[in-house]
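(Structure overview)
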Amino acid sequence: MPDRPNLIYCYDGSFDGLLCCVFESYEKREIPADIFSPDTEQTVLLPQREIVTDPVKSARVLASIPQKMGNDALDFVRHAYLTCLPRKELSILLFLRMGFSYGPRVMNMLADDVVNTLLKAVKHLTNEAHLLKGFLRFSVFNGALAAEIEPKNLVLPLLAPHFRERYPEERFLIYDRTHAMALIYQPYRSKIISADDFQMPEPDEEERSFRELWRLFYRTIEVRGRHNPKCRMSHMPKRYWSCMTEFSAERSTGKKQELPGGQKLLDGPRL
């Protein structure tokens, strides 16, 4: 049995770096108490070990996952890495150790706490990505499409194939405020990059007019007698509203905007 030392692994936050943590765990025959990325708030006093990302080691672990557990397990681990699950790194390491022991049937071990926790986190990720395919609102800036989102999970890798297929001849950008990352696409080429301190440009007159037309459509399409805020929020969660044109007022106006049912928004978010 591997030891459970009071030791923290520290890695660079990359998927390859996490795979190197798995390699280290097997090489040293130990399971760390936790795994920290550069973004982890460190409040423990346990000793720490820096795990250097080694492409050779990460490639060995990566190749072994489909060999030992199947391709579904590899996709599952890749998705788990994108979730907002607290301490996801340790859960992924424990899952992989189980998978190397039990093989493909680890995917069906739903009664296990580690598997069940990761499964719920991945479901939350895929549900959020699915919702954002409909809730994302593009604006036009100098002939290119641009949008902002505030997801809990790192959904850009899941959104990229959908919007590449939907707008193959367009140029577009999707900015993730939460993770300060951006998906940039130009015909048949795309890339996800870090984008700290990014701000959208101010919309021109034509863009503001189209936004107002969309708000007008949203306000007038509703059947007032059937207004049901709870139903709307169940299908369109309120935490997505800050990036949706129909729920936001222009930055420059500073005015209140009426919403169906008498609700109001003050000083809409940056679009």
